[in-house]
C-alpha cells in the first residue's frame, strides 16, 4: 500500500470490465475507487451501474429476443395440443419494457448494494476525468469537481452508439440501443439502419414482437463474420417477415407529424418511406472524449478514439491501464472484458503472468435464428491457409420440434478443418439455442481438437448439437 | 428348406443399431438384408420400421416433453407481454399424438426409402436363427422362408418388463410401448418405476395437465448421480407430480368403468387408489427369447442379454450382436448407431476401429433436464476415494427464469468432478434447461482429457446457462454453491 495515494487502484467505468477489476482488487484487500456515470443519450435515457451489458446490451437484448421466440412458440403450442392459443395475438410493449427494466434495476440494485457495503470500495456516481497520471477529477451532475489520487488507474469506459455526421438533427430524430430497451412507447413501424449484430438482433426481435421492420444495409451483413452464415441469417429473417433495403444509407430524416420521413438513393432513384421509429445501429465509438487522455499523455487512435494498450493492458502512461470496449484491438464482449480484468489484477498484485488472449473466443449472435461461432470464418481461413488446404464440412438440418408446426427455413452447421493436421479451426452453428450449443465447442476448439475427435464422440439424442458430431459431407 | 436369397450381411432388427449397420455395410457393396418385425404389445400396439427410438422411445418422448415445456411457456408469455394467452387452456391429447405419430410415420417411410436407395433388402418378417448362417423369416400370416448369410447381426433391442407379482398385469397396465400411441388421453395416471423412462413420462404427463403419481420402490434413477436425482425429484414435486415412495403395487383390479384400482404397501401399511391409467416403467429386457439362441449356441446372461466380445462377436464366429440386446452396453441410440457403423467398417471396409464406451454423454429429458458425462459423484468416490477428487458445484438461475417470480431459484445445478492431481475432468453434471444441447460439446473436451484450467481459460458466451460451467469456483464441502449478480 502506497500511502502517497488515496487509492491503490482507481477504476473509471463501472461496466463488465471495470466492476471485475474493482471486485478482484477489493478481494485482495486493496483500497479501490470507482467512478461510474452515465452521460444521458440524446433523448435523455440514463441507467444505473453495471455498464452496457446489463443495462443496454446483452441482458435486455436477450430478454427481448427470448420474448420474441416465446411468442413464436404459439404455433407449436397449438400443434402440440394446447387449446385457446391465438396465434395472431398481439404483444404489449409496455409489459415487456416494464419487466425488462424491473430485471435491469434488480441488477443495478445488487451492484449498488455491493459497491456501497463492501469494505475497501469507494463508489462515486460521478464522471471521471484524468487530471494527471495519478489524479482523477470527479465531476458530479451539477458540475462540481473533486479530486482523488491513485497508484494505478484503470480506464474501462466502454463505448456508446455512433451517429452519422452527415444527417442533420439525426440525434433527435433517431434512437439507438441506448434508448430501445426502455422506450416508453411501442416502436411501431421501424427502420433499423445498420448491419451489425446489434442491428440484426434488434430488427429480429422487433419483427418477432409483431412490428413492421425494415433493415437498411449499406453493403454487407455482419462485417467480420462468416459471410455465408451472415447471408443465411438474413434469409431467415426475411422468411420471418423482416424487410431489407440493401446497398444504401439514409440521406435525410425529417419529422413529419411526429413520424420519421426517411429518404435514400437506390440505383440512382430517390426513395422514401415514413416510419414511427428509426433505430440507428451503425457501430459504437469508444467513450473517451473529455477523459483528459491527451493532456495526461494516454495515446489513442485518433480516428476511432480507442485507447492504445499493449498486451498487458498498459497504456502509454506507466501506471495507467485500459481494458474492455474502449481499447483498440479488443473484442467488444463482456466475457473478454471480465477475464481481462481478472488477469490484470492477478498480474498487478498476485504474481500472475497471464495476459488476455483473444483468439478462438466463442460468441453468439442472437438473431431470430441464432448463430454461434468459434475460430476462423471461412473467409479468414481461406485467406490464411488457402482453400486447397482446407476441408469444409457442412450440414443442413431441422430441429425435431420444428416438425410440429412445419417451420420454414433450415438450420446449418459448418466446420472448417485443416487438411494437414485435421484440426478444426472454425465452428459455425446456425440454429436454436446456438449459444448453449456453441459454448462446449469453445473448449474443444481451444484444445485444438481434430475432426476425428469430434467424430469419435457419441451424440446426445435427440438434440441439435449432435448434428455437429455427425458431419460427413464437405464442400 | 429352400434358401430364397443369399447375403453377405443379414441384420435382425431394424432399430437404431441394425439400420445403421445395414446402411453402412451396403456402402461397401455388401449384399445386405434386414428383417424387422414388431411383436404387438400386450395391449396390441404396433409400429413401423425404425426400432424403439423412433417409434416408442427418444423421438415421441422428446416431442411430448417439448409439448409440456411449451405449455409451461404460456406463463412466461403472459409475463413478457403476449396478450390473449389462455393460461387455462386445456391440452388436447389426440391433437398432439396425431402430430407426433405423423412425424414418426414420416421417419418410418424415410427409413424404408433409405434402405431401398442403398439396395438393402427389407423383410417385414420375424426372424429366427435356423443355423449359424441361415435365418428363418416368418411373416404375419405364418408364411416361412429361409435366407443364408455370411455374417449375421442381431440387433433386436429390448422391450419393457412387467412386475411378476400381479396376476394378468399385462392386461391392466400400459408401458412406454403403448403410451405414445394411446388413442385417448391417459387421464389420472400412476407410473410405477423410477427409471428415466418413468420420470420422463411422469414429467411430461404432469406438464400436459394430467394428475400424475409416480410409485418408487427405493431410489430414483439408480446408477445416476444421486444428488442430481434428488434435485430432479424436488423440481418435479414443485411442478405438481406426486411421489409415492418406498412402495410397490401388490394388486391392480379393473373396475366396472375400466379404471384401475391399485393397491400398494408403504411402510407396512396398505393403501389403494383409483387411476385411469397405470404405466409400468420398471425396466426393459432384451428381446432375444424367440430368436432360438440356445439351439445355435449363442451365450446369453440370465437377463437374456447376449454376451459379446469388445468387437461385437457372439460365441458363434460369424454372428454379431449390437445395441440394447447386448450385455454391458449403454442402452442408447447413438452408441448403437456408432457401434453398428464401426462394425460394418471392420467387416467390409477393412477398418479396425472399435467402439469406445468411455465418456458417453447422455441426457434425461425430465421437466428440468439433466445432461451428464463420465463419473457420477458416487462412482468417482467409489473408484478414486474422496481424497483424490475435487467437486466443484454451482446453483444458478437462468436469465429467462426471471420473467416469472419463479420459486425454482435453486433448481439448476452444475457439478464438475476433477482429479486432484492431474486436474482432469472426469465427470460433468448439468441440471437445467437445454441440457442436451449444452453437454454435447463438453463431451469432446472431456474425452480429450480437458482440465479444469482449460475450461476456466475458455471465454464464456454471455448470457447463457452453459457459461456457468466455465466459471465454477465453489468447491463442494467448502463453499456455498450459490452466487449472485449478472
From TrEMBL, chain A:
Keywords: Disulfide bond, FAD, Flavoprotein, NADP, Oxidoreductase, Redox-active center. GO terms for cellular component: cytosol; mitochondrion. Residues 361-471 form the Pyridine nucleotide-disulphide oxidoreductase dimerisation domain. Residues 7-339 form the FAD/NAD(P)-binding domain. The keyword Ligase does not apply. GO terms for biological process: cell redox homeostasis; cellular response to oxidative stress; glutathione metabolic process. Its cofactor is FAD. Pfam families: Pyr_redox_2 (PF07992), Pyr_redox_dim (PF02852). It is an enzyme of class 1 (oxidoreductase). Its EC number is 1.8.1.9. InterPro entries: FAD/NAD-binding_dom, GSHR/TRXR-like, Pyr_nuc-diS_OxRdtase, Pyr_nucl-diS_OxRdtase_dimer, Thioredoxin/glutathione_Rdtase. Catalyzes the transfer of electrons from NADPH to thioredoxins TRX1, TRX2 and TRX3, which in turn act as reductants of disulfide containing proteins. Able to reduce nitroglutathione (GSNO), a compound involved in the transport of nitric oxide (NO); however, TRX1 is more efficient in reducing GSNO. Has no catalytic activity towards oxidized glutathione (GSSG). Belongs to the class-I pyridine nucleotide-disulfide oxidoreductase family. This is Thioredoxin reductase. It comes from Paramecium sonneborni.
TrEMBL record, chain B:
One of its GO terms (biological process) is cellular response to oxidative stress. It comes from the Eukaryota. GO terms for molecular function: flavin adenine dinucleotide binding; glutathione-disulfide reductase (NADPH) activity; thioredoxin-disulfide reductase (NADPH) activity. Its cofactor is FAD. InterPro entries: FAD/NAD-binding_dom (IPR023753), GSHR/TRXR-like (IPR046952), Pyr_nuc-diS_OxRdtase (IPR001100), Pyr_nucl-diS_OxRdtase_dimer (IPR004099), Pyr_OxRdtase_I_AS (IPR012999), Thioredoxin/glutathione_Rdtase (IPR006338). GO terms for cellular component: cytosol; mitochondrion. Keywords: Disulfide bond, FAD, Flavoprotein, NADP, Oxidoreductase, Redox-active center. Transmembrane segments: none annotated. It holds the Pfam family Pyr_redox_2. Residues 8-339 form the FAD/NAD(P)-binding domain. The keyword Cell membrane does not apply. Residues 360-471 form the Pyridine nucleotide-disulphide oxidoreductase dimerisation domain. Its EC number is 1.8.1.9. It is an enzyme of class 1 (oxidoreductase). PANTHER family: GLUTATHIONE REDUCTASE, THIOREDOXIN-DISULFIDE REDUCTASE. Belongs to the class-I pyridine nucleotide-disulfide oxidoreductase family. Catalyzes the transfer of electrons from NADPH to thioredoxins TRX1, TRX2 and TRX3, which in turn act as reductants of disulfide containing proteins. Able to reduce nitroglutathione (GSNO), a compound involved in the transport of nitric oxide (NO); however, TRX1 is more efficient in reducing GSNO. Has no catalytic activity towards oxidized glutathione (GSSG). This is Thioredoxin reductase.
Amino acid at each position: 500500500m502506497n500511502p502517497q495515494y488515496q487509492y491503490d487502484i482507481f477504476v473509471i467505468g463501472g461496466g463488465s470490465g471495470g466492476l471485475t477489476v474493482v471486485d478482484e482488487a477489493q478481494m485482495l484487500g486493496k483500497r479501490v475507487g470507482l467512478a461510474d456515470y452515465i452521460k444521458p443519450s440524446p433523448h435523455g435515457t440514463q441507467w444505473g451501474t453495471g455498464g452496457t451489458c446489463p443495462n443496454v446490451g446483452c441482458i435486455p437484448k436477450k430478454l427481448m429476443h427470448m420474448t420474441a421466440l416465446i411468442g413464436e412458440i404459439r404455433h407449436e403450442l397449438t400443434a402440440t395440443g394446447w387449446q385457446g392459443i391465438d396465434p395472431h395475438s398481439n404483444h404489449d410493449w409496455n409489459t415487456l419494457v416494464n419487466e425488462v427494466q424491473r430485471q435491469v434495476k434488480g441488477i443495478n440494485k445488487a451492484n449498488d448494494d455491493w459497491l456501497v457495503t463492501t469494505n475497501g470500495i469507494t463508489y462515486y456516481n460521478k464522471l471521471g476525468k484524468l487530471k494527471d497520471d495519478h489524479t482523477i477529477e470527479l465531476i458530479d451532475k451539477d458540475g462540481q469537481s473533486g479530486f482523488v489520487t491513485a497508484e494505478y488507474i484503470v480506464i474501462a469506459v466502454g463505448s456508446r452508439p455512433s451517429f452519422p455526421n452527415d444527417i442533420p438533427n439525426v440525434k433527435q430524430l433517431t434512437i439507438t440501443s441506448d434508448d430501445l430497451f426502455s422506450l416508453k412507447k411501442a416502436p411501431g413501424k421501424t427502420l433499423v439502419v445498420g448491419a451489425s449484430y446489434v442491428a440484426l438482433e434488434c430488427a429480429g426481435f422487433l419483427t418477432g414482437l409483431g412490428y413492421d421492420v425494415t433493415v437498411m444495409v449499406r453493403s454487407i451483413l455482419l462485417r467480420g463474420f462468416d459471410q455465408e452464415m451472415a447471408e443465411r441469417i438474413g434469409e431467415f429473417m426475411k422468411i420471418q417477415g423482416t424487410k431489407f433495403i440493401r446497398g444504401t444509407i439514409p440521406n435525410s430524416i425529417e419529422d413529419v407529424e411526429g413520424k420519421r420521413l426517411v429518404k435514400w438513393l437506390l440505383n440512382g432513384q430517390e426513395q422514401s418511406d415514413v416510419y414511427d421509429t428509426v433505430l440507428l445501429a451503425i457501430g459504437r465509438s469508444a467513450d473517451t472524449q473529455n477523459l483528459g487522455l491527451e493532456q495526461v499523455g494516454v495515446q489513442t487512435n485518433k480516428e476511432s478514439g480507442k485507447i492504445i494498450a499493449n498486451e498487458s493492458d498498459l497504456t502509454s502512461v506507466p501506471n495507467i491501464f485500459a481494458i474492455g470496449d474502449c481499447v483498440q484491438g479488443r473484442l467488444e464482449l463482456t466475457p473478454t472484458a471480465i477475464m481481462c480484468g481478472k488477469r490484470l489484477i492477478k498480474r498487478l498484485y498476485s504474481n500472475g503472468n497471464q495476459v488476455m488472449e483473444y483468439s478462438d473466443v466463442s460468441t453468439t449472435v442472437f438473431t431470430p435464428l441464432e448463430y454461434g461461432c468459434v475460430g476462423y470464418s471461412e473467409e479468414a481461413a481461406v485467406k490464411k491457409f488457402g482453400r486447397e488446404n482446407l476441408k469444409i464440412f457442412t450440414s443442413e438440418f431441422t430441429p425435431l420440434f420444428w416438425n410440429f408446426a412445419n417451420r420454414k427455413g433450415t438450420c446449418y452447421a459448418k466446420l472448417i478443418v485443416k487438411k494437414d493436421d485435421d484440426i478444426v479451426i472454425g465452428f459455425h452453428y446456425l440454429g436454436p439455442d446456438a449459444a448453449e450449443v456453441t459454448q462446449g465447442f469453445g473448449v474443444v476448439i481451444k484444445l485444438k481438437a481434430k475432426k476425428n475427435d469430434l467424430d469419435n464422440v457419441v451424440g446426445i439424442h435427440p438434440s441439435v448439437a449432435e448434428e455437429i458430431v455427425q458431419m460427413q459431407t464437405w464442400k | 428348406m429352400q434358401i430364397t436369397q443369399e447375403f453377405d450381411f443379414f441384420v435382425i432388427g431394424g432399430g437404431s443399431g441394425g439400420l445403421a449397420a445395414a446402411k453402412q455395410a451396403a456402402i461397401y457393396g455388401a449384399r445386405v438384408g434386414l428383417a424387422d418385425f414388431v411383436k404387438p404389445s400386450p395391449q396390441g400396439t404396433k409400429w413401423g420400421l425404425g426400432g424403439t427410438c423412433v417409434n416408442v422411445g427418444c423421438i415421441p418422448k422428446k416431442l411430448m416433453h417439448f409439448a409440456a415445456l411449451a405449455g409451461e411457456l404460456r406463463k412466461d408469455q403472459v409475463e413478457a407481454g403476449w396478450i390473449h394467452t389462455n393460461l387455462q387452456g386445456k391440452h388436447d391429447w389426440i391433437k398432439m399424438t396425431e402430430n407426433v405419430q405423423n412425424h414418426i410415420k414420416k421417419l418410418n417411410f424415410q427409413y424404408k426409402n433409405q434402405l431401398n436407395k442403398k439396395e438393402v433388402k427389407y423383410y417385414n418378417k420375424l426372424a429366427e436363427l435356423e443355423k449359424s448362417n441361415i435365418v428363418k423369416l416368418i411373416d404375419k400370416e405364418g408364411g416361412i422362408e429361409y435366407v443364408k448369410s455370411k455374417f449375421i447381426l442381431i440387433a433386436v433391442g429390448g422391450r419393457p418388463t412387467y412386475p411378476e407379482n400381479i396376476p394378468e398385469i399385462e392386461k391392466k397396465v400400459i408401458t412406454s410401448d403403448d403410451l405414445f400411441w394411446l388413442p385417448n388421453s391417459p387421464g389420472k395416471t400412476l407410473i410405477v418405476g423410477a427409471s428415466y423412462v418413468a420420470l420422463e413420462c411422469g414429467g411430461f404427463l404432469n406438464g400436459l395437465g394430467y394428475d400424475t403419481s409416480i410409485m418408487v420402490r427405493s431410489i430414483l434413477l439408480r446408477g445416476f448421480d444421486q444428488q442430481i436425482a434428488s434435485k430432479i425429484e424436488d423440481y418435479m414435486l414443485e411442478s405438481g407430480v406426486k411421489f409415492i415412495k418406498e412402495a410397490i403395487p401388490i394388486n391392480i383390479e379393473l373396475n366396472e368403468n375400466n379404471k384401475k384400482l391399485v393397491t400398494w404397501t408403504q411402510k407396512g401399511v396398505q393403501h389403494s387408489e383409483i387411476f385411469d391409467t397405470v404405466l409400468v416403467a420398471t425396466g426393459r429386457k432384451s428381446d432375444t427369447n424367440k430368436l432360438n439362441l440356445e439351439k445355435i449356441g449363442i451365450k446369453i446372461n440370465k437377463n437374456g442379454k447376449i454376451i459379446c466380445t469388445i468387437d461385437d462377436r457372439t460365441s458363434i464366429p460369424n454372428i454379431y450382436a449390437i445395441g440394447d440386446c447386448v450385455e454391458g452396453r449403454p442402452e442408447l441410440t447413438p452408441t448403437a448407431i456408432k457401434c453398428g457403423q464401426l462394425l460394418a467398417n471392420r467387416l467390409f471396409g477393412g477398418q479396425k476401429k472399435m467402439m469406445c464406451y468411455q465418456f458417453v454423454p447422455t441426457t434425461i429429458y425430465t421437466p428440468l433436464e439433466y445432461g451428464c458425462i463420465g463419473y457420477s459423484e458416487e462412482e468417482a468416490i467409489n473408484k478414486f476415494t474422496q481424497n483424490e477428487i475435487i467437486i466443484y458445484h454451482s446453483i444458478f438461475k437462468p436469465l429467462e427464469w426471471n420473467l416469472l417470480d419463479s420459486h425454482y431459484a435453486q433448481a439448476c445445478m452444475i457439478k464438475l468432478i476433477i482429479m486432484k492431481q492431474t486436474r482432469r475432468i472426469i465427470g460433468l453434471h448439468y441440471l437445467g434447461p437445454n441440457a442436451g444441447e449444452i453437454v454435447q460439446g463438453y463431451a469432446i473436451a472431456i474425452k480429450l482429457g480437458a482440465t479444469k484450467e482449460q475450461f476456466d481459460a475458455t471465454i464464456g458466451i454471455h448470457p447463457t446457462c452453459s457459461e456457468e460451467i466455465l466459471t465454477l469456483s465453489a468447491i463442494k464441502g467448502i463453499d456455498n454453491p450459490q452466487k449472485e449478480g449478472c
